[in-house]
Amino acid sequence: MSSLSRVLGHAGAEMATYFLHPVFTLSCNVARQQKEPDMHFKKRIAVALLVAGGVSQTAFADDETERLAEISAYFTSANLLKPITVVDCTLSGGTTTRCASITTNAEPGAREMGPWCPDSIEDGADKGGIWLESGRKYDVSGQFVKQLAEFYEDPDWQLYDTQTGKVHVTDTEEACRAAARPDVDVKYQNYCVECSPSYLGEDHSTTFVIPLEPVEAKKSLWFLDLFDRRRPPGFGVAFDGVKLEAPAPVDAILDAHTLAPFDDCGGHVNPHEGYHYHAVTGCTPEIAAAEEHAPMIGLALDGYGIFAQLNRDGSEPAGLDECRGHEEPGLGYHYHADAAGSNLIIGCLKAQHGCTLDDPDKSCDASVRPERP
Question: What is the value of pTM for the model shown?
């Protein structure tokens, strides 16, 4: 009998089937009419299981096949390019182990991406995305663009034509690539930067290689140091298959008097990495967790679960550490996303991490410093 059946007791095979097809709650405001989209290391990752009455119990996979089934069930709404498999991998600390290999096209399957930049200073909030500044989330409306000089107390901001009111937008692939880089082309300073997913090509994919079991690291990997060469491209994956990224390099963006908005779901497109999230705003699929606990929204690259910021009663979980993680009875150690305006989904990774790969046929050796575009 599997560990799942033992935990569920008399529910048996019926509840095991229910476990392998968890209930997802999608809360993305596709129409955009509202701007607010309403362990300690353990041998196995605890899996939050939704049961009758909304109360969850904890099951531990006792073999590779069961753990693979659990992870596959998380990503039923993702744009998977092939079934999730288990592969050999080398983690960041040099540990050789077994990992789940999850290959997606890096685009959310349940909704459209964007918009990002408004076309005119007359456009409302529904025509643009959001911007993150000083812990707050702002709508990138035409009025916001118009008032950037005042907002940043810098008269050099001028993202629109004063005669026509038209916003300067990177509306070609050439412009996107020239502006969406640390050394912004002078020609595209004072531009609103957006890149179309169509620039990536049909063969674009991202493969997340995540350990089936977290392995203790000698020290945490922090994300605030944008120049740390140990930092992988992305620290996890949401259940819609989209990469969860470290903080956006806002200082470099602003130094060139550019704005690179995120859509209402906290994502934008980079010509090298595709669509990815810098904030969690409630758009991603969720798996209900125990009692009043926040729902689970993704997996970190070290194998721990990532949960939403707030519990069901609107409170933030107590006792979060520097990585925004804590130990919870029945759920083990896991992370909680920070507020959208923070530009920091989680602070660091506690365990050895796997890889994010641009080629699904590559093997994962995270002990080697990742290449940067």
Answer: 0.83
